[in-house]
Every structure is written in structure tokens, then in C-alpha cells.
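User: Hi! Is it possible to get a structure for several chains at once, not just one? Here's what I have:
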Amino acid sequence: MSSSVSRPPFDPELEAVLAVLADRIPPTMTAEMIPGMRQAAPAEVTDEMLKASGLTRRDVAVPGHLGDEITVSVIAREDRQGLGPGIYHTHGGGMVSGDRFSGLAQALPWVVEHDAVLVTVDYRLAPEYPDPYPVEDCYAGLVWTAEHAREIGMDPDRLLIAGQSAGGGLAAGTALMARDRQGPDLIGQVLMYPMLDDRDRTVSSAQFDGVGVWDRGSNVMGWTALLGERRGTDDVSVYAAPARATDLTGLPPAFIDCGSAEVFRDEDVAYATALWHAGVQAELHIWPGGFHGFDLTAPHTALAHAMTAARNAWVARTLGA
Amino acid sequence: MHHLVGRLSALDPEASETLRIVSYFDVLITRGAGLDGLLRGAAVLSGTVAGAEVRGRVSRRDPDGHPVTAAGETRRSPEMSHGDWTVWLERDGEPGPHDAMIVERLALGVELIEGRRRPEGGFEVVIDPARPVAERVTHLARHRLDPATPVRILATAADTAETGAPSAIVPTRYGLLRATLDVFGKLDPPEPVGFGTWVRADRAPESWDAAIIALRLTDESVPAVDATELGAMLLLAQAYDPQHPHEDVRALAGLDARSAEVLRTLVEADSIRSAAVALGMHHSTVQARHEALTHTLGYDPRTNAGRMRYIAAALLQRLTAPAAPAPAGPA
Amino acid sequence: MLKYSRPPFDPEVEAALAALAEQIPAVTPGSIPALRRAPLPVLSDEALLAVGVTRRDVTVRSHQGAELVASVIARSGHTGAGPGIYHIHGGGMIAGERMTGVGQILPWIVEHDAVAVTVEYRLAPEFPDPYPVEDCYAGLVWTAEHAAELGIDPGKLLIAGASAGGGLAAGTALLARDRNGPGLIGQVLMCPMLDDRDRTVSSAQYENAGLWVRESNRTGWDALLGERRGTDRVSVYAAPARATDLTGLPPAFIDCGSAEVFRDEDVAYATALWHSGVQAELHVWPGGFHGFDMVAPESGIARAAIAARNGWVARTLGARLPDTGGRR
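Assistant: Yes, the chains can be modeled jointly so their relative placement is included. Here is the combined structure:
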């Protein structure tokens, strides 16, 4: 039982934030809370915000899985010149919530800094749209992005994929698909505390059961919404759960970060290790005492600053800045 | 950019903002976040720049947590000073609703940090189990106390005034508290108060530990608790780590207020029928609730063993739950 | 023969590697003297003085009564009691001297007014295990005992080391735990050498590429452990990767490159720490070979690595000890 499983403590500044937000962000999200999760977050990225940063947004209907229409937003600097690097963004939300603007605060600085073009996709959510809808929608959006790159001001040879949490898992799955379907070329994959493994059998899962943010119970709920009864069985594809992939050769260089005090720690370290073992380049950071998504929830803290700085530096190096 | 407390108010107007500010700083201080962490906290809670000057060295942080080095501060208001340090928030015009409390908590934190720098330490040494007994005895001598003198330690809230007896503000797992030395049993402390067990002076840390637990068990109807009267329950409470709640405690904490009330009544009642009368519910409804609760808890609270388990878990829950009244239901 | 494909070296540091690799071929038992004769450059006293730091030598009584030299390095005019850094140099267990690698800790001395003590532990193979780690432990004990005169607050003592120094730092931290002192608030393990068993994937991947190749690693461990290497008769203090109980250790900072022999054992150690409820920060820098930040400090990944490490030290020294209320 978790009461006897010792776990790394939370960072002091982050623990203070948890103390204040605990009843708004309970550790365990249940299926009944999905509607609440979908409504709760106030819009993180408004058009006013974009304008204040000198960015514009354009919504486009693109074909998703099975040709169904889904929406992407193309975001770039108002004063964008020529062809810039591209960022294909897959949002987080546990596979069951969020929209194409969720968590975008992490990626927008890259658009500003590197004059990049960002395409963020509104993939359809579980449980209404279970696997393979989410990852296939993400892949379809990536294909559209590559096909229309030059039109939207993007250099198709400088395209990154990036996502956090469930979006990180979807980014990893999409990168695998792109490799296997001889799809768009990616120069890197930014996997921010990615959700990669439906099997719920890591030590970090057991350590963060009933405590922290997006705990074990929440994670099982999210994966079950995505995979139904297939969760934890042999009948799960590597695109849905990239942790199950045994062949990682030929994937683009990865950036992986995570907190030491969250469920995803061990599967994220394992994925980085599997990449290295396959000869793929990867940068890994595990931040001590970080709970899930702390850079978004507590951006003012020293650890959040460090996490963001390391990530931004990788993006800068990868885009050749 | 919305400051943290303001954002919370928008989401949850019922929330007690002052309590959140207190909790935030308590955790920062207890967990040893340091001066920069305190300043970042003050800045994010207030939405403005927070600053500290300690022995001539100025540190300022903005609400994004970044250092502010540009010269020319706006007005330092409010501001608190003590000895060789000063803390403040920077605001022109209207003060924020919590500025005074934020600066007060920031000051408390700095006082503690500065206090720890004194090599010989203050009264807190006497109750610190991490200090060697020889050091504690040296400190006792300063208060003209023999190591064998019977004493007890009192626990009260950090912002209670000193009583004249030796005391110190100490970070604990329940936040900042004030520890006061009681030699003669004649102190008239403010309430709520927890009285520690009587011990040899050189074992004061044990009394302090008991006092903290006793304070934790006070409430509006019982604002003073003496650890001695807890009897064997003190042993149970001392063995418990609120950071790793037992599954029985988590089960209780997961109940909504009505279910908790039903459970409490079921445990105390002689029969299902008398419980139904007390609750104003139909007998068969209470029966059904009993079965559901048995399932949720993993034990039947109306058996002898189940009652004991419930009472133990309820006691420990009071050591686990935050100081604020528990929220009424799921978020 | 099965060839492992391996993550490539970072382009910036690869250039530095190409220049150096000719000078540092694989280390064999026979080439140890040559390795010792061609050490990495160390900071001179003039270089220290240029940043307001001085060095003085002291004598430390060690394992079985031997006398060791240690250097005390601090800002000139340091007063009061501040943070302490107990430093253990690297060199594969078989080479290096107490000033090797001090460049990595110098920023902490300057920035945080810390006092560093760096010990000249005796080297293998002349002094095999347990001499090196016991010498290091003795130096740590000496440091804590003389904290007041050194100007160190014993409640703010870090241990730090790179490579073999990182392994010895981890081993010394285990000894300090098991012998009830001295107390440490953190352990900085920079590309640490932790595992004598030579069976990780990264060992195979960097069989003959990089600065500290697999053969060199075997030479170092053989010198330290003799025929005990790879057997059951190796203590956790000599090879911390073998420790099964990591509870109660101080918070750790661990970094390494993705392109070096030590990658997998370093990641495994961090994981084992987390599994024991111990705090740890981990960074694996893409394409970094062993010691890349010392050899190519101006490169992008070296600058990032140094910044991350310095950030951890700042956060750790800025924080204080946990609460005094209650048993915990």
C-alpha cells in the first residue's frame, strides 16, 4: 500500500503550491470528473494574449482519422519572414480533456524566439473517441502540416513535434507512426513529462498513489478511457503506448523531462534509456521534487524556471540558433 | 497575469484566502525553502514585487519569480523591519487585500532563517530532538534549569503573543507554531493550546511532540487539550506519519460530510434503528448506507473491532487533515 | 561480433574529442604510469588568486594512521561559518591529484562563499580498495571535526566528485550514513564511476569511443579490486551501484553524457535513489562524452550542464534543514 511506500518528497516551493491548490486539484481524477476537467480550466491562451506577444492565429479545418474534419490552429509572429522552423504541438489532458490551446504557454516562447510556425491540433478525446482516434488525428494533422509547410511559412526540413503529458505520449506515438509510414521528417521530439505506458506497473506509479497531481488512479482512468478493456493486455499498439515499442531505431532526437515526484518518472527514464540503447540521441532531465505539470501550475518557482530554461535551451540548440 | 490567490478566488470564492496564505508560507518555511523561495512566494501571492534587505544585501523577486535588479523601486509598502533585516512589497497606490498578512508571514520566515544563523541558537534548541543532549542541557542552564527539573512544553499558534516564559516559533509538520516552556503549571496561555506531557527538562523534545499532537486535537468545543489525558492514544498518534496517511484514514477523508455523519452515528448508536432515528432517515435507508460504508471502508464499523478501527482512524484523521475545515465535497 | 549502434557525439564536443583522443588512448595496467605523467591541467594558485580564492594545505590523519595531504580552498578573507564542500578528485581510481577537477567546484566557492576541502586519497593499484574510500571518509570526518576552524557550518556540508571522484563521493556518503556521520546535505555526483561489473549497454556502446573507454574502465576497477572485480566480494562502498538499500542518503545531483560508458549505471543509481524515497536530480546531456564539460566547457551542452549543476547547488545551499517539530 502506498502508505508504506516511501517516495521522494516534493520540492518545498512546489509543496507550498500544492497546499494551497490541493482541493482544486485533487490527486485522483476519476471518470466522473471528466466533464469538470473539460470545463474547469479558464482559457490559457486567448487572442488578446497572442496579440500582446505579437502573434497571430488562424484556424484551419483539416482531415483527421478516417477523413473526418478536425481543427488545427496555425500560430506565428505577425512579422514573420520567409520560411521558419516548425513546431507541431499535441496538447495534454490525460487523453480525456484539454484542447489545442492547453499548455501552449510552454511552446509560444519558441515561436517568438525562433520565428517559428506552430501548428496545434485538436485531436478527438477519449472516451468518446478511444484509441486509435487521438494518435491518428495527431498523425493526420502532422501530415497536413508537412504537406502545407511552405504555404504556412514553415521549412519542412526543420519540423519538431512537441507535447506535454498525454500530448507527450501522443507526440512520441506520432513520431513512431511517421517513421513507420515513411511520413513527415522530424528533426526532434519534445516529450514533456510524457504519458507513455498503460501497464501501470512502475515503482513511481506505486509511489504516487493518492498523492500529488495526476496520480496512479488518474492515470489508470485516462488509459482506460483510451483503451477500454485492452488496457494492460497484449492488444495495445506502440502508437497508443510508446513505452511498449521494442524498436526505437531511426526516431528523431528526443528531449524528455519529468519530475521525480510523479507517476511518469520511471516510464520516462525508461523511454530515454530505450532510445539510447537504440542509438537514438536523447536529452533527459528529472527535476527533484517536481509534481506532474509543475511548470504550468507553479511557473514562478525556482524549479519551474530551471525546467523551462533547460527545455528552451534544447529547442534553441536543435533549431540551430 | 493573475496572482495565485486572485486566481483561486475566481475559481473558488468560498476559499479562505488568509488560510491559504498561511498554509503557503508554513510549507515554505517548514520545508526549508530559503529566502529566495519566500520572496517568490510573497510575490506570486500578492501579484507584486517582494523584497528583502538583509545586512545591506537586497533581494527582490517579481510575481513570475524572476530576480528584479533594475534600480529604483516603487514604494515599499507595506514594510516590516527587525534588527538587521527588512522585508516589503512594492506597490504604488492601493494596497492589495492581503498585503499586510503576506508581509507578516514573510517577516516570520525571515526571522526564523535569521534565528537559525545564530550559532548558539535560542529556546528552540531545548525542544529540538536533533540536537545532542549536551547542547540542550547547556541551554537549560541559561534558563537556570536543572536537567532533571519536571517541565512541560505548550503549543500555540505562531502568531500568539509571548507570555513572558521562554518560547520560540518553530516550524513543524503542522506549520509554524509557538513553543512555550512551562515549569510551574501556572501559565495562562491563549487558546487553542496543546499541553505537552510532564518530562525531565532534558527530555523536553518529547513534551513538545506531545504538545503538537494535543494542539492538533483541539477544536471549537475543546480549545485546550492536555496530552497526558490522551493516555494510550498518544502512543498511537506519535507512531503516525501524517505525510503517509494510512488507508483507513484516506477512506474517511474521502467521505462527503453527510456520509461521515452517517458513519459517526452508526458507530455510536446501539442499533440501526436508533441510528435512523438520530439521523432522521428511514431504517432501510440507514441499513443500505451501512452496507455501502462497510464496502467503502473495507470493514464493518459496527463490529467491536470495526468500532475501534474507526475511532483510531478518526483520531489519526485529525492529525492528517489540513487546519482549515474540510471542503464540503469533491471539487 | 554484435555492434551496438550508439548515440552520436555532440558535434561541438566531438571536435575537442578528436584532438584529445590521440593523447589519451585506452588505459591498460601498463600505461598507468604514463597516464599519471600526463594529467589534466589543474588550477594554479595564481589562477585561484585571480578570482579572490586562496589555497592552503593541511594534514589529515587517515585509514590505519596514515597522514594525507588535503587542500583547503576558500575566498580570501572568508569569515564566519558557511557552506562546506568536501571534494574528491577523479582519475579512474588510479590517477589524478587533489586539485584535479577543482575548476568544477570553484564557482560554488566564489558564489556561495563556501569552503572546500579536497583530499589526496591514496590511489590504486598500489593502494587497492578499501584505501581510497576509507581515505576519503577520513578526510570527511576531519573536515566535520574541524568545521569551526575551517569556517564551515557542519549543517551545510556537501560532498562532490567527478568520475572516480563521483563514485568515491557516493561510497563515502554511504559510509557516512552507515557510521552515523558526518551529516551531509547533498551529494554532487558528476559522471560518477559506480559499477565494477562492466555489463551495461552503455559500456558496450562505448567500447572504444570516447575519453574513458570500456578497457580503461576495466583497468581502473581491476586496479581497485583485483580479482574481486565482478564477484560477490565487492562492498557497496567501493561500488555504490551494488547497494540495495539507499534509504537515508542525502539528496543527490547526478549528471553524465548520453555518449559515455557510465550513462546506464548513473541513470540506474538515480532510479535506485528515487525508489528508496531519496531525492535526486538527473541530467543526461546528449552526445556528451565522459568529462565533456571539463574538456570543452565553451560548448552548448557543457554550458547547459554547468548551469544546471550550479543551479542545483544554489538551490540546495539556499534551502535550510527541515522542521524541528516532532520526531521526523
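Chain C has one domain: 11-318. Chain C has a mean pLDDT of 92.

User: Great, thank you!
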